[in-house]
């Protein structure tokens, strides 16, 4: 009994009851200090604050449904209870009804960027929490949001570059590579990141940046494999290329696109999914170009064969590699320290669940879906303690499981007339991606419905402080006889 009590207390401290803001809006609150609906300037200020918060959430990969819920809840907190929100791939429209005799107020915001800045996302999450709990006035909330969106990244860009490289090295180990694979993956990804930054500043479309990244990811591996006898080394080029491809895939909004499709936002889902396909096509084009050039000049690569299941003795190393990859990804996306810890444990849980299920010979799709469900569930619980959005843990946790190896295997097999293996691998990559995103969605739903705070369970909304009138106890009185002098006895004084 003592052990169970200690275990329950430990889990309670780990998860906590302070649910993420993305999980808590269940009904429009009753504002403590509602704004004046007849004042057009104040109403416009509240609407602008709400859509700008939604802009940060949508740009960070949050689903359209969750973004719309957050925007609507912020507006309702200030008294705009009747609002209509429309969230698409790159725009947010908010209209507030102010009564039958006043015209509605409408505003619109276009999302011009896609930013994976987890510190900015966590800061906006704290701002939303403050708006709900402390009723921050609209001018102060707007100034705080301005500081958040204009603040520089918390880390130097070179730290992000080393984090991307560390992530590639960890994924190389997760795929079964040794020290040489990790070193080559590290250096190759450093080059990809720095070239990508230069091309981004030059304004090159992101599709062509992915093409260049895919080309750079494959070229060093092909070169080292063909000169390994002269250099006296032994290297697996598929592991190096797959590590680089996984890093390139990690910046795509795969989770958000499938979440939109599942939660009832088909337009935004189709737009995001088409973007994912286009960017993945750029990676494939870059890798294919490198392979074709290698074939023209006489270089060759080993034929694709079925990958054996990992030995049980390799599981601890691969689990730590998956956790490290998640940690490095969160660091590359400028996450805070407490978010780094949550991302590490999320990646640890995901890699462990994937390898355990894979030992049962269930296939990579089922193993990936199970691992993503574990990551989504654990991320939703850990987000309560760390006070961060669950999206950070979810995206970081499934990043090491992205189908970089299956994508490369399918592409290389089709280029070498192994159509059956190629088509099977490409479909497996597609299934793994969908399984990861769907598993994260299911896990987050489970975390949202587990251990609901008693306040929300009773009222379905956040309780607001109320004033109660307390009555003081009446003192006993003594009746005085008519005509007797006013004297108080010792007993009466004592009373």
List the helices and strands and how they pair.
Blueprint (H helix, E strand, L loop, with lengths): L1 H14 L24 H20 L4 H14 L5 E5 L3 E6 L8 E6 L7 H17 L3 H13 L6 H18 L4 H23 L4 H21 L1 H4 L5 H14 L3 H9 L3 H31 L18 H18 L4 H23 L4 H23 L3 H9 L5 H12 L3 H31 L4 H6 L30 H5 L1
Antiparallel strand pairs: 1-2, 2-3
General description of the model:
This protein starts with a helix and ends with a helix. It has a 3-stranded antiparallel sheet with strand order 1-2-3, with helices on one face. With 495 residues, the chain is mainly alpha-helical. Helix content is 66%, strand content 3%. Helix 12 (266-296) crosses helix 17. The longest helix is centred in the middle third of the chain and has 31 residues, at 266-296. The protein has 20 helices and 3 strands. The relative contact order is 0.11. It has helices spanning 2-15, 40-59, 64-77, 118-134, 138-150, 157-174, 179-201, 206-226, 228-231, 237-250, 254-262, 266-296, 315-332, 337-359, 364-386, 390-398, 404-415, 419-449, 454-459, 490-494; strands at 83-87, 91-96, 105-110.
């Amino acid at each position: 009994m003592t052990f169970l009590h200690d275990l329950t207390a430990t889990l309670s401290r780990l998860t906590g009851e302070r649910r993420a803001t993305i999980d808590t809006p269940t009904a429009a609150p009753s504002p403590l200090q509602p704004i004046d609906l007849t004042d057009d300037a104040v109403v416009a200020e509240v609407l602008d604050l709400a859509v700008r918060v939604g802009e940060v959430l949508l740009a960070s990969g949050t689903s359209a449904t969750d973004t719309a819920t957050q925007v609507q809840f912020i507006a309702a907190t200030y008294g705009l209870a009747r609002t209509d929100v429309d969230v698409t791939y790159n725009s947010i429209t908010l209209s507030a009804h102010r009564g039958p005799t006043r015209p509605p107020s409408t505003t619109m915001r276009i999302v011009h960027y896609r930013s994976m800045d987890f510190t900015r996302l966590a800061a906006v999450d704290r701002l939303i929490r403050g708006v709900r709990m402390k009723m921050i006035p609209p001018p102060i909330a707007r100034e705080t949001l301005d500081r958040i969106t204009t603040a520089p990244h918390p880390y130097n860009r070179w730290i992000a570059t080393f984090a991307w490289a560390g992530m590639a090295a960890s994924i190389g180990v997760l795929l079964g590579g040794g020290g040489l694979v990790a070193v080559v993956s590290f250096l190759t990804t450093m080059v990809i990141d720095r070239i990508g930054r230069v091309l981004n500043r030059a304004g090159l479309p992101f599709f062509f940046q992915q093409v260049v990244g895919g080309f750079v990811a494959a070229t060093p591996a092909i070169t080292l494999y063909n000169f390994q006898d002269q250099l006296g080394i032994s290297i697996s080029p598929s592991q190096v290329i797959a590590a680089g491809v996984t890093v390139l895939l990690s910046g795509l909004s795969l989770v958000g696109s499938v979440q939109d499709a599942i939660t009832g936002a088909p337009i935004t889902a189709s737009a995001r999914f088409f973007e994912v396909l286009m960017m993945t096509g750029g990676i494939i084009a870059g890798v294919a170009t490198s392979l074709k050039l290698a074939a023209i000049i006489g270089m060759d690569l080993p034929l694709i064969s079925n990958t054996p299941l990992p030995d049980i003795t390799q599981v601890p190393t691969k689990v730590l590699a998956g956790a490290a990859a998640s940690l490095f990804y969160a660091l590359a996306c400028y996450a805070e320290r407490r978010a780094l810890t949550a991302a590490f444990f999320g990646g640890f849980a995901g890699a462990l669940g994937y390898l355990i299920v894979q030992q049962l010979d269930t296939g990579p799709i089922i193993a990936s879906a199970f691992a993503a469900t574990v990551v989504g569930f654990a991320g939703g619980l850990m987000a309560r303690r760390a006070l961060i959005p669950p999206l950070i843990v979810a995206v970081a946790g499934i990043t090491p499981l992205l189908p970089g190896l299956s994508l490369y295997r399918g592409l290389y097999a089709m280029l070498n007339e192994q159509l059956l293996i190629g088509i099977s691998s490409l479909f497996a990559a597609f299934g793994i991606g969908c399984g990861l995103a769907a598993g994260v969605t299911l896990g987050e739903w489970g975390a949202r419905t587990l251990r609901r705070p008693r306040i929300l369970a009773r009222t379905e909304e956040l309780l607001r402080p109320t004033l109660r009138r307390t009555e003081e106890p009446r003192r006993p009185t003594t009746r005085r006889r008519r005509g007797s002098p006013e004297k108080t006895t010792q007993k009466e004084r004592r009373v």
